[in-house]
Amino acid sequence: MTHAIYTASIPVFKQMLGGLKEVLRKAEAHATEKKIDPNALLQARLYPDMFPLLRQVQVASDFAKSVSARLAGVEVPKLDDKEQTFADLQARIDTVLAFLNGLPVDNFEAAATREIVTQAGTPKEKRFTGQSYLFNYGLPHFFFHTTTAYAILRHNGVEVGKKDYIGSY
Taking the model in full, what pTM does it have? Predict the structure, then answer.
């Protein structure tokens, strides 16, 4: 049986990460074609106080894996944040997609009411129900970082459009 929280999270994360992979593929091809140092794109940002592209992709993938893990009631996998290239970012997304594909649907049965605690025991501790965590925290943050990654590349002349961003559905 498919559960509502599963349906509202895992397929969405997978679709958007697929779109992010395509946007990154086009960015790497753009850099090669235009003879641009890939780091010019990987370190590009929309404003000096914002994360560069590389970090935007890391954080977007972190939200996809951590939100999904918490909703499924499993341990959040740790990634080392050592990516330096487009290939590294593609591999990171593939790792997260493999994790998402391995989550049992049945783990999401009680996800809507499961208590989610972020930064437990710290002054920034937040408590959510699974439903609130997904819709009011997880998805908005995930979309912010995927959108910002797209916007950085579009702003830097990479020919990507809405279909690339949205991915296959």
Answer: 0.95
